[in-house]
Structure prediction request, 635 residues.
Amino acid sequence: MSDGSALQNAALPATTPAPASAQNLTLAALGVVYGDIGTSPLYAVRQSLINFGDLSERAILGALSLIVWSLVLVVTVKYVVVIMRADNRGEGGLLSLTALVLRTTHRGQKRYLWIMGAGLVGAALFFGDSVITPAISVLSAVEGLKIATPLFEPYVIPIALALLVGLFLVQYRGTAVVGGLFGPVMLVWFTVLAALGIWGIVQQPRILLALNPLYGLAIFVETPWRGFIMLGAVFLAVTGTEALYADMGHFGRTAMRRAWLALVFPALVLNYFGQGALLLGNPAAIESPFYLLAPQWGLYPLVALASFATIIASQAVISGAFSISRQAIQLGYLPRLEVRHTSETQIGQVYVPRINWVLLVAVILLVVTFQSSDNLGAAYGIAVSAEMAITTGLAFLYMRSQGWSLAIAVPVFGLFLLLDLAFLSANMLKFLQGGWFPIVLAMLVVALMATWWRGRRMLAELRARDALPLTQFIETLNPERPVRVPGTAIFMTRDLVHVPVALLHALKHYKALHQRVIMMQVDTEDVPHVSDERRLEIAEIGKGFYTIRVRYGFLDEPNVMRALAQCRAQHFHVNLMETSFIIGRERLRASPRRHPFGHWRDKLFILLSNIALDATEFFRIPPNRVVELGGQIEI
Prediction:
């Protein structure tokens, strides 16, 4: 089955929530999407000033100015206003954006491979972030409990592991249910953030001077190197931003923009300024400016609320990982895996069991290895900042294809790229202290996706080299031989030009063909949805042979039985009680003589092929109507 063919513009619009559900979607988005960026006040201000090594008024105002203007430029302007315009029929994320840009490039050009490679690297970096964020969030939550109860210190790792297992166990309920559970907690969280911030600002109103961006620029003019080091910690205030784009298909652009502009952004700015106001009056509060901003009586409830909020923070990247995994499967970058749809109204809400358990195992290994959030902090930021830079480059290419002039696109995306590269270079200073981890993890994911993508193409070339043209095969058929038996046989094939290997095997073993033989190819196009009008393409090629091409978008759910039912609209009827599906099951093995693909990549591709979901289950074919015929292929 093809993994992406002709690029068409006609597609169903993205699912739009009914007005009555808009408020619920906004609340759910708070719980699923904004947990990561919403818990940054716990450490961003403190870490920035510690990295800078100065608690003077100018340092505090400079740090606050950099944090607030990073939120304005990176989150609000870049992502909420600009990047979210680059949606693939409502779906966001790097792979979706990559598909949009590839649509403007010819497959044979080197530029095509560079763009695709950038998209795969960006998606791989997101997987790295999906491992680090849950680990550091849960550890931060549990370590926060030590402030109120030091007796918990020996149990930090066991409690963190228990919470992580619980978090991943509830993922099967779906992002709508999880968001419904977490949304109210985050609503309370952002309300408390705003209230604490207002209280601090009232005590020291001059902190509002930090709204002037010149205070942030002065840091780099007066102490450029220390300011550069500080920038790596300032970036903590915008981590989680890429998840906004990746999760756009879960809740829709409108709900996510509403949540950010109406609640999340104001609450974050107020709290950051409140912490800065506290430090202006009491620099010793640098020990924990977030918690010390609260009155004494509110410390214990705040620690408990922060614990919940930081656990929830990992939900954004987990949901984003499911979205990107599904897109990668449909676009042919990952083998077929089980994808469960968890919402009847929002097509983008999915759960991928195998990805869920792989993430859980990786997160547990990370917690056991690094032991504390301080150690993990060194690994945090590189993956996200690199991914942001890739998003900027791809979005520039897409906006240019949509008519943006160079006079507008160059300064806008030039500013975005300058910010991305500044944050990336500052975070690279932490490479040896743990920043290597997301890079190594991303390289492994890229190797997996590139191996699967290239391996499938090599396999297709091998099949095509030895295959018999379908038209030639039909022309040579004798009306009397082979024997034609009653009924319909449907052969699932990857192309409609050559005779399926399964058909040749069936003819060899049974010495007969059905009266009606259908070759069915399932294509996944690089648009989220394909309309019913374009779903099917049926052709008769003579002597009882037919071809059916079924098109899906990368967010559509392949369902062969439903596609056959839709054939009636074109006056082509299939009696399922008289129909058999013939599917070839190929066993791959590495050639002992040649390894043009690389020996280790041969082994990896064979492994990935073996763990791929069975075609019968993936395409929703009734098992009792399937006949499988096996064979071997050397690669």
Observations:
- Residues 110-148 form the longest helix (39 residues).
- The first strand starts at residue 340 and ends at 341.
- The chain has a mean pLDDT of 79.
